[in-house]
Amino acid sequence: MNLMTETVFLLATERDTASLGAALGDALRTGDVVLLNGPLGAGKTTLARAAIRRRCGAATVPSPTFTLVETYPGDDITISHFDFYRLEDPEEAWELGIEDALCDSASLIEWPERAPSALPADALSVTFEGDNGGRRAVVTAPPVWRDRLAKIADRIKNQPKDAS
């Protein structure tokens, strides 16, 4: 029996991706893990940056492509942003401190397929896909995320659209 819930968000612009990221940032709790899937340039880092800016107030949010992990302390939560793209061995995730991050922070993980053994089964998964010239985010949520995902969807749906 599959208890996962799937919600699709249409992302016509980079601003739409950032809006979804900000809404996700507001919903994060310590111990949450968000897996960001999709090809290069799909929107993974844009979404992560928006979540971090919203929740931690960070003015500068560099991509962790070279550092592999960046940590952002906020008032009520710490967010760890991992990028597994350059991992050569899945075991390297443990060397980055993922075990502590999974307990002590909310974790946003780009390229999670490079270290699947380090990831919990109850993670929220965001998969970016092409959609007729735009893109969409398919969000697969375990039961612990169900109510929060519904609130995110309502927030995005009720957000004013640009007149441009």
How would you briefly describe this protein structure?
With 164 residues, the chain is of the alpha/beta class.
List keywords for this structure.
globular; alpha/beta; Rossmann fold; 164 residues; 7 strands
Descriptive account of the structure:
- Strands 1-7-6-2-5-4-3 form a 7-stranded mixed β-sheet, with helices on both faces.
- The radius of gyration is 15 Å and the shape is globular.
- Helices cover 30% and strands 27% of the residues.
- By secondary structure, the protein is of the alpha/beta class.
- It is built from 5 helices and 7 strands, in the order βαβαββααβββα.
- The N and C termini lie far apart (45 Å).
- α1 (14-27) crosses α2 and α1 (14-27) packs antiparallel against α5.
- The longest helix has 14 residues, at 14-27.
- It has a single domain (14-157), classed as 3-Layer(aba) Sandwich (Rossmann fold).
- The protein has helices at 14-27, 44-56, 92-95, 98-104, 146-157, and strands at 5-11, 33-37, 69-73, 78-83, 106-110, 124-131, 134-141.
